[in-house]
Amino acid sequence: MKLCVSSTGKDIGSWVDTTFGRAPYFLIIDTETMDVVEVVENTAATAGHGAGIAAAQLVSDKGVDGVLTGYVGPNAYNALHAAGISIFEGASSQETVKEAIAKFKKDEYHKASAPSEVPPCEPGRGKGPGRGMGRGRGKCRRP
Amino acid sequence: MQKTIEGNFQSEIIAAYHEKNFETPVIGVTGGKGGVGKTTVAVNIACALVNMGYKVALVDADVDAPNAAILLGMTLENSLDVFITRPLINESKCNSCGACVEVCRLNALFLPKDKAPVLLGACNGCEACLLVCETNAIHRGKKTVGKTYKTNRGNLTLYTGELIPSLEESAIVVEKLKERIFQEAADFDIIVVDTSPGAHCNVIKALQGSDSVITVTEPTPLGAHDFELILKLLDIFELKGTAFLNRADLPSPKDAVQKIAQDHNTTVAAELNTDDLLIKSYVSGDPIVTMFPEAASAITFVRLAHEIAQEYLI
After folding, report:
1. Is A36 inside any structural domain?
2. Shortest CB distance from B121 goes to which of A50, A60, A63?
3. Is residue B245 part of a domain?
4. What is the Cβ-side half-sphere exposure of residue B238, based on CA atoms within 13 angstroms?
5. A25 Cβ partners below 8 Å, 6+ apart?
6. How far B198 CA sits from the closest chain A CA (Å)?
7. How many beta-carbon pairs below 8 A join chains A and B?
8. Residue A63: which domain range?
9. Do A78 and B122 touch (CB under 8 A)?
10. Residue B114 touches chain A, beta carbons under 8 Å
């Protein structure tokens, strides 16, 4: 199956981008071999209007069988649906494309059958370093 | 084809902007800031001209919030729908080339592989898809975006434009409203156009063809700021006219507004003080020039109407 995953970067180790229409990249992956068939830059991401429809056009023209992302807006849903492309929602920004596909192969994402009303809320991915306030656990050695 | 708006090209635009195919004079009433009294001024000048025996068309071009009818105690009549094009796709003629999808700047069309395109997103009716379709598979459908009205009372005829709330095609409603009145311009001695607040394309469109523009403002920092914006706009479009200082007795210095008027070679033709009788007429839907003709503000409006008649009608 040719699966399109919305991604923040160009390789399979990149984080998933959870918004379909405005994701910077789409990775088209052969789910059997796990090969990245094509990296598509989402030229619709910065569109003033209709980013979801234009993004759907872009991936539809690439002949994908399914889309895996966090959330598909109503316009993009209708477009992908019209093109007969399966929509899998619920991928998280805290997983890489590779991890998301592994979960996909275990059927962990639901196939959307109607446009979602609102985008799901999810916690942001922490990117900062730890604050380094751990206490030492060693024995107190008095001089 | 593509030219920038400079040099001779700009003068062509300005000339076209001032072109009219009728003799009836057009007086614009604008002001930049909202709530300065544009509609009150337009309604009262129009009614004063009617009381002088002229046939007057008053055009309410504030299509987002048309309310001149309320000040006149009128109920709107004779509505016509304003449409934009909605592309209708004839699937049997379509060769799935995708040109329409590519040209659509709103990305409203989607082309499923080897099928005909479908309209999924917001379409503003620009018709680019119709132009590029090689097989003429796209036809003009209609989407209603607003209405224009023509309400007659004696020698006063009110033309009103009204946009359907939430839609963005206000400029199209203004354009259709102007078309409707300009087609019937010969039926009137004079046309008075009341614009929306602001200095944007709806105001530009509303003032198109004006022989003179009355700019209403008030002596407040907001009034002065927006007064300067609108005078700059009038300069760009080479529209001449006068200023009308409303609420001139507000406890706020008038010199800022006067200085701006002077800088733009605009005379302050009238000053109006706050007036209880004006408020009374405002809330009762009867213009002060007919309700309280002896009031100071009514006398000011009548004087302005006489000055307009002197310049354009005699």
Report:
1. yes
2. A50
3. yes
4. 11
5. A6, A7, A8, A9, A10, A14, A17, A39, A40, A41, A42
6. 24
7. 52
8. 2-48+55-111
9. no
10. no
Does residue B1 form part of some domain? no
Number of domains within chain B: 2
Q: Which has the minimum average pLDDT: A68-82, A129-143, B72-86, B153-167?
A: A129-143
Put simply, whether the predicted model's pTM sits higher than 0.80 gets the answer: no
B105 inside 8 A of chain A by CB? yes
Cβ neighbours of B99 in A, within 8 Å: none
Half-sphere exposure of B271 (CA within 13 A, CB side): 10
B-chain residues near A54 (CB < 8 A): 107
* Residue A17 maps to a domain: yes
ipTM for the complex shown: 0.80
Examine the domain organization and report whether B58 and B163 are in the same domain: yes
What's the whole-number average pLDDT of chain A? Answer: 86
Measure A61 CA to nearest chain B CA, in Å: 7
CATH at residue A39: 3.30.420.130
Contact A49 B110 (CB under 8 A): no
pLDDT value at position A110? Answer: 85
The answer to whether residue A60 scores a pLDDT higher than 60 is yes
Q: What residue numbers bound the domain in which B33 lies?
A: 7-81+146-312
Cβ atoms within 10 Å, residue A78: 19
Q: Chain B closest CA to A53's CA: distance in Å?
A: 6
Does A63 reside within a domain? yes
Are residues B68 and B100 both part of a single domain? no
**pLDDT mean for each 10 residues of chain B (314 residues):** 60 93 97 96 98 98 97 97 96 95 96 93 94 96 97 98 94 97 98 97 97 97 97 96 96 93 97 94 95 96 98 94
Looking at the structure, tell me whether residues B177 and B221 fall in a common domain: yes
Write out residues 34-53 of A within 8 Å (CB-CB) of B: 44, 47-51, 53
Q: Which of B118, B136, B154 is the last residue of a domain?
A: B136
Same domain, B166 and B238: yes
Asked if B121's CB is within 8 angstroms of A49's CB, the reply is yes
Pick B107's closest partner by Cβ from A47, A60, A82. Answer: A47
Overall number of domains in chain A: 1
Q: Is the pLDDT of residue A136 over 60?
A: no
Q: B207 with B304, same domain? A: yes
B168 touches chain A (CB under 8 A): no
